[in-house]
Write the structure tokens for this entry.
Amino acid sequence: MEFDWSPNQRERYADTSAAVAERFAEHETSTDPESVRLAWKDAAGIGLTGLCLPREHGGAGLGALDTALSLEAFGRSCPDMGLVFGVAAHLLSCAVPVAEFGTDEARELLAGMAVGDLIAGNAMTEDEAGSDVGRIRATAERSSEGYVLNGEKSFVSNAPVADVFVTYAVTDPSAGFLGLSAFAVPRGLDGVVVGPPLPKMGLNGCLAARVRFEGCVVPAGYRLGAEGGGGAIFQHSMGWERGCLFAAYLGLMERQLAECVGRTTDRRQFGRKIAGFQAVSHRIARMRQRLESARLLLYRACWLLDQGRTDVGAIAMAKTAVSEAAIANSLDAMQLFGSTGYLAGAGIEEQLRDCLPTTIFSGTTEIQLELIARGEGL
Amino acid sequence: MTLDEVTPRITTFISESFLDGDPKGELTESTPLLEWEILNSMNSALLLNFLREELRVDVPLSSINAANFRDIAAISTLVSGLVAVPAEGV
């Protein structure tokens, strides 16, 4: 058992963190699509859009754990968590399946995705299909030119700025969730309709929208994997997303904790630092303990992925631990900063808003707990 | 593992994990698991974990399709044809 980072991992983390800090020091979260695209270019310039993609397609060829460490560095040094989330979702839920299951034709998109020239959005969720992907209604019917897609996706992160969508549609209605097929759909195809940006509570740097496919003809070469392989492909991509994306929140928690330590040692009340009050110092201790517990579970889940041992329970525990720690720590940070934290601008209320959706996206906590419980034979 | 060894293990797992023990004894080797939504996305993830952890068989992603998972007979044939992965620590 080895808990230490290798010299390479330390160096990559430090370099990434420094590069992110430099590029995003003056960055302000924006919901303007052009500004969002410019921020993506900065992230891409550091290699963050292609971390785990094959080298021959312009990626860095990193495994799951090393990808997670780089995303952790991104989350630590970039306060625009929406941007961090959007880049990570593009990489893990879109580029990973294209890289692993795409035909040569679909893989031609990869070079652009790896360097951030093409932004991808994962178009899975529908109004009636969230956790239960077997409820998906979008269809893909064979035609002489490939497949004809029809249906509407209700929440597609990155959609307003996306150049390509990875989507899932029913090709065999009698086969349940194994009747789904996966497709890479360039936005420029006829019949792709992207709705206006959805107003959201947080992660504002990641624009999201509904996406409708209206008789959209997709060449067969853009199908990912075999017909009917979409369900398994989606679960595979979620393994990567639940494992690696949440490392960004470890980074956020690390930054947040440093801010809280600074705040409680600087601020004086009743003639002493407020950190001198046990009610305050123990809150900080709890924040550290939650962060480190979640970190160990996440690193182990990613390590298992790298061993080719996709462990549903390990990933579910990591995802649950990180998301719950992120919310709990953000509430603690709010209390420690008091009214300053409640005011917009200091970053503390923004952290809380950015952390709240973590127990919902990439599979709700309820589903993760169900997976863990049923893994126990319940 | 032979087909005769695999089939009862998988049948028992599906019966106990997804059908409350199948009290009426309705589950057969040809019960359409996907069509009747006994195997949904969550249950399939649990089944794959069971195959890996208990039967030491790692099903490649390319083999996870409707033909191989439509019923117990198909799953058993698939699993019995896959080489068991070596045991590993936790």
